[in-house]
Protein: Cytosolic arginine sensor for mTORC1 subunit 1
Amino acid sequence: ELPPSEFMQVADSTWLVLNVVSNGREPPGCQATGVTKIARSVIAPLAEHHVSVLMLSTYQTDFILVRERDLPVVIHTLAGEFDIYREESGECVPVTCDDVSNGFLKPKPAASPTLHPVQSPQTRFCVLTVAPDTLPAIATMLIDVLFYSHSPPWEAGAGSQDLDSITFFSFSLIEGYISIVMDAETQKRFPSDLLLTSSTGELWRMVRIGGQPLGFDECGIVAQIAEPLAAADISAYYISTFNFDHALVPEEGIAEVIQLLQQRQESSR
Structure:
């Protein structure tokens, strides 16, 4: 319904959302542990079969977006380890490989993905949620932060942003659940009694993947980050955006994360 605009860039693919649930159940209020839970079972196999994914972590759970045209490959790749369902009119209907086999071609093995540089700003971030009924109380502040508090990025030259301090604010509203990522300084502008976080109140540091916009056709970008973190049992909160990918890790683990990723890049040269 958005009007056409020269300022709005739209990817040419339609994407579908995958939600991975343990044992067919997931308590609605559970705290997400990050993409490391599904790194080996979902993210890595899809990368090996040349399926490009977008990742979206939320306060409650994690979502994987795949292109609609890749659905047959996704089903065939994951059916051996997962029971797969599609949602129809609010009901979960089992899906089998036969349902999507028409025209299925086994993909060629993916080429070795490009190892993109990673950067870690000094900014400290908070991962938060808000009760939907209290959202109106912070709506004006949200609008100010989203649209008016920072200079538009196009006023700066490409690559000129000082990564010692990165501007990043993420808001998602999915099935009534709200997730917000903001830097610790911005959090101080909001009423503290309305923003909910984990009982530990931990802060997060960011690893940004890509020195230039990544595009949507390359495969294995999420796996490059998720696999080594999963091997080291480090939780991550992962957000793919139109231009870059971002992984948030607990602040106390950032040094280990940077070391792991640097070692991975050096070993692949």
